Amino acid sequence: MSPDEIRALAGEYALGLMDPVAALDVERRAARDPVLAAAVADWRGRLIELDDAASPQAPSDGLWARIEAGIETPSPTPAAALERKPSLFSRLWSDVTALRGAALAGAAASVALAILAGAAYREAQRTPQVIAVLLTSDNRPGAIVEVFADGSSYVAPLSDVSVPSDRIMQVWTLPDRETGPVSLGLLADDGSARLQPVSLPAPKPQQLYEITLEPSGGSPTGKPTGPILFKGFAERPR
Amino acid sequence: MSPPLSASEDLNAAALAACAQGDRSALRAIYDRESPKLLAVALRIVRRRDLAEEVLQDAFVQIWRKAGSFDPALGAGRAWIFAIVRNRALNQLRDDRHVPVEDEALEAAAARDGEIDDAYERLAEASALRRCLGRLEPQRRRAVLLAYVQGLTHGEIAGRLGTPLGTVKAWIRRSLLSLRECMS
């Protein structure tokens, strides 16, 4: 990207103009690209003057108490995340940013998955090569995909989806641009499922996974045709 | 932009470091210092006071949890804190947008035009941002301000200004580049 492109991208991000998926992408890139991170920080440092131009508003008396109640749960240090506490599950729902911390995401996702999937998961417990936390369009955790060395995958929705009777959720990945999206399988009962091995190159970090809504029986074209319910990128568990 | 603060001058950066160590009084100090302004910023975006307080509540919990990831090399603690509140407010606003916009809401929105002019007029006389925004053609300046101050999307700005979407996108992009050049 040219310096101008980086400045404009960082500016659009700092203005708040990006949809959640694009914003997440910028955050992910900024975490690895110091030039982009500095460009975002520079815009924030300048635009904050517009925030300062707002007339101060006194918060209501109870607000601080509500904040304090919210931080009662211990902060999610990796050690805390590994303890299998139900509170972690609610934290997953309420705090997408915890998922953005890549180091934590693997551990947190595994824990949530274990809670959700129970016996079925334990039975099949092996180390996945990658885990993808798929987000809804408004940036909430929507589903988790774990991909194993034999090409099989385990998919668990994390939010309720009302699937019409003539539709089905279909799981896809994008191994590379030339191949295009490849189906991993269907979620028959609208719930978690272990999907049969698919012959694909080993999944890479940052590989795209998504779930779309397709006609029952799956997409008639072999490529996604319906709306995207959840999408996200894979990471290796840490 | 004002010169970067050193860690000892940046009260918020020091407080964030203390939060990361589990010091609640540091979060309280941030709250006491910044919450009236943060509430105002959230209110301009989400419009309803109860929602704005909810935004602040969620944002402060996030600030507490994420304090350890704050990197002083990437700007002041205050900008980091404001960014968290802004992001939370934008998410809140966009959650609500699953509901179709009523005519009434559009009228109320039009009545808010004064607010963005106000935000611009209230920038300090000596501010480079003010000087450089002032060089933009008024409709383009409004487009930039509608995005930042009220949290509107490209499409909503196009609707508000009665301008095609592609034009609005190009305006904002070019405005960002000329602002950047003007301020450097």
From TrEMBL, chain B:
Q: Does the keyword Transcription apply?
A: yes
Q: Output one GO MF annotation.
A: DNA binding
Q: Which is a Pfam family this sequence falls into?
A: Sigma70_r4_2
- Designated name of the protein: RNA polymerase sigma factor
Q: Which family does it belong to?
A: Belongs to the sigma-70 factor family. ECF subfamily.
Task: Report the PANTHER family cross-referenced here.
Answer: RNA POLYMERASE ECF-TYPE SIGMA FACTO, RNA POLYMERASE SIGMA FACTOR SIGZ
Q: Which InterPro entries match?
A: RNA_pol_sigma-70-like (IPR039425), RNA_pol_sigma-70_dom (IPR014284), RNA_pol_sigma70_ECF_CS (IPR000838), RNA_pol_sigma70_r2 (IPR007627), RNA_pol_sigma70_r4_t2 (IPR013249), RNA_pol_sigma_r2 (IPR013325), RNA_pol_sigma_r3/r4-like (IPR013324), WH-like_DNA-bd_sf (IPR036388)
Taxonomic lineage from the root: Bacteria, Pseudomonadati, Pseudomonadota, Alphaproteobacteria, Hyphomicrobiales
Task: Tell me yes or no: is Transcription among this UniProt entry's keywords.
Answer: yes
Alphabetically ordered keywords of this record: DNA-binding, Sigma factor, Transcription, Transcription regulation
Q: Name one GO biological process term.
A: DNA-templated transcription initiation
- Chain ranges of the RNA polymerase sigma-70 region domain: 31-97
- PROSITE patterns named in the record: SIGMA70_ECF
Q: Where is the RNA polymerase sigma factor 70 region 4 type domain?
A: 128-177
* Organism of origin: Chenggangzhangella methanolivorans
